[in-house]
Amino acid sequence: MDLEKPPTGDVRRTAYTEERGGEGCLTVAIRLPVRIVALVLVVPVRMAWDALVAAGGFLGRTVFRPLGRAVGWLARAVFVWPFVGLWRYVVVPLAKAAGWLGLLLVVRPARWVYRWVLTPAGHALAWCWARLVVPVGDALRAAGTWLARHLLVRPLQWAYRWVLTPVGHALAWCGRGVAWCVRTVVAGIAWAVSWVVRVLLVWPALALWRWVLAPVGRVLAVVGREAGDALGHAWRIAGRISLAVGRFLGTLLRWIFVEPARWVYRTVLTPVGHVVRDAVLRPAAAAARGTGRAVRQAFASARESVRQVRADVRRALFGAPPPARPVRRPVDRREPSGAEARTLGRSTTALTKD
User: Fold this and answer.
1) What is the mean pLDDT of residues 60-82?
2) Are 342 and 350 in contact (CB under 8 A)?
3) Per residue, what are the HEC states of the chain?
4) Spans of biased composition, class Polar residues (predicted)?
5) Are the beta carbons of 46 and 235 closer than 8 angstroms?
6) Domain annotation covers residue 317
7) Is 258 part of any domain?
8) pLDDT at residue 261 above 50?
9) Which site from 121, 203, 261, 344 is most exposed, i.e. has the minimal number of CB atoms within 10 Å?
10) Furthest C-alpha separation in the chain
11) 246: how many CB neighbours lie within 10 A of its CB?
């Protein structure tokens, strides 16, 4: 047994108010006019939207979907199928023929040239490289290394150690001094500029934000939030109104057109159709069947007469045909054949098999 009572309207309203963070009098004063104006403006838009959605669905089912299928079939017939046939019956055979010609005229001669010309030439060049070029290159490399070490590397090391290093240290000391002076001057200028910017720009902007823009932004936020909520409520209420209007119009159309048409079909057209079927169509169908049967019998009699006349003419011109020889049927003497004779693996004979 549930001993807890469901929340009443006041409790729900209090919970909603606490959830919204305690709304003030400005919010309450803005909400009702905004919702009324939003409802008045949104109801025609929602009804027009629902009408357009219904019309679009009807047109899509009855016009656009069959039209799209026809256009798709026409596009396949005009663009896809010719290209498929061209690819299947022209491009693919030509490509196969070109591949076969390329294999016969290019690949096999190139393979032969590679095997019997380029490979021996490459082996000869490799032997010459290993036996002649490599020893000469090793000798030149050793001579070049010795000359570079004694004529270039050692003089450069001496110049770096005894000339460039002291000059570099002196330049670095001068650069550090100049950098300290520049850094000190820049720091002083930056401190002065920062104080000027703070006094002339930051503090006025902060005061403007705190005492002007923030209150105005809160008011605009409340107005915007209430306008959004009002539009949402108005859209939902307009949907219900549009649904009710649509149902009323559907019921009105049904009682004006559908129900009278159904009553006429059920009470007038169906009995008349039954009478026409029983009094006219069925006798006419029976008469048509009898006429067709008589015509078929007449055609059968005519065909039989023509066949008899043709046989009489043939007999008068060529004589009577010779009698057919009787067909001799083999006599079953119940003798076992080779396939049905008794074997060692079976316990029955051909005579006792049946």
Assistant:
1) 89
2) yes
3) CCCCCCCCHHHHHHHHHHHCCCCCHHHHHHHHHHHHHHHHHHHHHHHHHHHHHHHHHHHHHHHHHHHHHHHHHHHHHHHHHHHHHHHHHHHHHHHHHHHHHHHHHHHHHHHHHHHHHHHHHHHHHHHHHHHHHHHHHHHHHHHHHHHHHHHHHHHHHHHHHHHHHHHHHHHHHHHHHHHHHHHHHHHHHHHHHHHHHHHHHHHHHHHHHHHHHHHHHHHHHHHHHHHHHHHHHHHHHHHHHHHHHHHHHHHHHHHHHHHHHHHHHHHHHHHHHHHHHHHHHHHHHHHHHHHHHHHHHHHHHHHHHHHHHHHHHHHHHHCCCCCCCCCCCCCCCCCCCCCCCCCCCCCCCCCCCC
4) 345-354
5) yes
6) no
7) yes
8) yes
9) 344
10) 147
11) 14
Give me the amino acid identity at 217: G
> Tens digit of pLDDT for each residue in 187-227?
989 998 888 888 888 888 888 998 989 888 888 888 888 88
Total number of domains constituting the chain? 1
Residue with tokens 């809160």, as numbered in its chain: 218
7 has a pLDDT exceeding 50: no
Residue 106, amino acid: V
Q: Is residue 348 part of a domain?
A: no
Say how far apart CA 330 and CA 189 lie, in whole Å.
135
**244: in domain:** yes
Best CA proximity match to 351, nearest among 329, 338, 336: 336
